[in-house]
Amino acid sequence: MPTTIHPPRELQPGTLRVIPIGGLGEIGRNMTVYEIDGKLLVVDCGVLFPEEHQPGVDLILPDFTPIRDRLDDILAVVLTHGHEDHIGAVPYLLKLRQDIPLVGSQLTLALIEAKLKEHRISPYTLAVKEGGHESLGPFDLEFIAVNHSIPDALAVAIRTSAGTVLHTGDFKMDQLPLDDRITDLRAFARLGEEGVDLFLPDSTNADVPGFTALERDIGPVLDDVIRRAPRRVVVASFSSHVHRVQQVLDAAHANGRRVAFMGRSMVRNMGIAADLGYLKVPEGVLIDAKKAKDLPDERIVYMSTGSQGEPMAVLARMANLEHQIEIGAGDTVILASSLIPGNENAVYRVIDGLTKLGANVVHKGNAKVHVSGHAAAGELLYCYNILRPRNVMPVHGEHRHLFANAALAQRTGIPAENTILGEDGIVVDLKDGVAEVVGQLDVGYVYVDGSTVGEITDADLKDRRILSEEGFISVFVAVDPVTGRVVVGPEIQSRGFAEDEKVFDTVKPKIIAALTEAAENGTRDTHAFSQVVRRTVGRWVNTQHRRRPMIVPVVISA
Fold first, then answer.
1. Could you give the CA distance from residue 308 to residue 526 in angstroms, rounded to a whole number?
2. Sign of the Cα pseudo-torsion (48, 243, 256, 231, in order)
3. Among 6, 87, 79, 94, which residue's Cα sits nearest to residue 41?
4. Rounded to an integer, what is the distance from CA 36 to the centroid of its chain?
5. 478-517 burial, b for 16+ CB within 10 Å, e for fewer?
6. 3-state secondary structure of 360
7. How many angstroms separate the CA atoms of 558 and 543, rounded?
8. What residues contact residue 72 under an 8 Å CB cut-off, 6+ apart?
9. What span, in angstroms and rounded, lies between the C-alpha atoms of 461 and 430?
């Protein structure tokens, strides 16, 4: 059912408006705008990675249209943690106004500062810790420790005169985390006693029963795989997954191997994590990737990017024999990450390519080499029972995740009418414990393609898909505009459609006949003649070849 766009009513004084610009119906682009008394607070500003039906696109940004004309009203951007789907779009927002303060934990700010440096932006930052409070205009913020697949993640409680909101960011409830930093359920309970008017929980694993497995369970599996590997080991993970990299370093060290980081983002992020003390590097375990080639195969582990099958990442280039490290028989490749929805085909292509080269590929499907960073249904039920929120709006998930999260809320006694399900751009007003949907904004995808931002449209992507899947046919014809007689041509060329141009011999007489008929019926305009050529070739292609290539007719008067 298509989304019905309807502008929200005027925001009343003392009412808190909540607008998720991204993160509803997708895994990525997380961004929520809070407004009260003329001031805005933004929580997270992330990117979405393109799928196969979006060829040529590098990143997908949130649509900043709702706040583009109100940049001076933004008091800060609060970043819950350092993953790309929560911080990746910050450089593009700061290009609109560079002095927007960024609020987050030490590691989160270090990661975004490194990213902004590449964009030549020096941000104003405010580092916060769990248990800390900050007042920004009408917003009183409390930061709460939550456990996730990256250190230093924070939930944020937002207190206003209209009520209290708890925005979890990404979280789970691992009771034995590697860094001993658990989700602060005591703070959740205190907020529940105080009263939470609107709860925005992570929905990614809401349809997974039970509890997310412990991160500590992965270490022994990685150790066993590395110990048994006869030759080189390549481990692919997210470049910000500090916990997983820590386990790889420990397993490699225990088995007499050294570790080389591969991929620019992996080298950068792990350098930051080590400098700040979040990554404990065993002495002598790291080695420069260039020097690693001099080690015996059985003494090296490469820690790389590319666990999602990204075509330009290290792992995909290895699979395509486009990398300096040539994978061969006896090598072991570990994909230590989950599959982001939409990336399945790309990942399995990489797995097939590596397997064909002789590698033993270990992944979540055949070994316990990864656990999720998101709360499963059992953990979410605990949160609902502890918090007892008056209203719930599930965020961060595809539609099935949002619906599953809403169902969990209702099972704990939250009325269905207090459970808000929506899409990006939904407008919710909160006051006196009542959350009401008051509008739906028209927000879309903003595509980053090379150096261009927002210039590529869905129509452009459709053309790219046609070109990649169906091919391209160009037809050049010079006609006498009075008689419609073809003076030159038709000259037909194609790409990605037919190897032998002789296949077009049967359609050329049809083009000539159609132009002559059009002239006899009074057509004189070259654009109209072009449309005649397009329709004639299109019908022939569809009938004879069951294809729908892009057809570009060029008709000139002669």
1. 49
2. negative
3. 79
4. 29
5. bbebeebebeebbebebeebbeeeeebeebbeebbebbbe
6. strand
7. 31
8. 97
9. 38
Strands 332-335 and 426-431: unpaired
pLDDT in tens, 460-517: 555 555 555 566 777 887 877 677 677 777 777 776 665 566 777 777 778 777 777 7
Beta-carbon contacts of 533 under 8 Å, excluding residues fewer than 6 positions away, are 475, 477, 490, 511, 514, 515, 551, 553, 555
* Residue 21 φ/ψ, nearest 5 degrees: -85, -25
* Residue 463 burial (10 A CB sphere; 0-12, 13-18, 19+): middle
Closest Cα partner for 441 from 22, 73, 16?
22
One-letter identity of residue 403: F
Measure the CA–CA gap between 309 and 300, rounded to whole angstroms. 23
Q: How far apart are CA 151 and CA 14, in angstroms?
A: 36
Write out pLDDT tens, residues 508-552: 778 777 777 777 676 667 777 778 777 887 777 777 766 677 777
CB atoms within 10 A of CB 35: 24
Dist CA 190 CA 194 (whole Å): 6
Whose tokens are 């790409």? That residue is: 495
Contact between 222 and 248 (Cβ < 8 Å)? yes
**Helix 106-118 × helix 264-275 angle, to 10°:** 140
Query: Among residues 152, 316, 142, which one has the least CA distance to residue 234?
Result: 316
Longest dimension (CA), the chain: 86
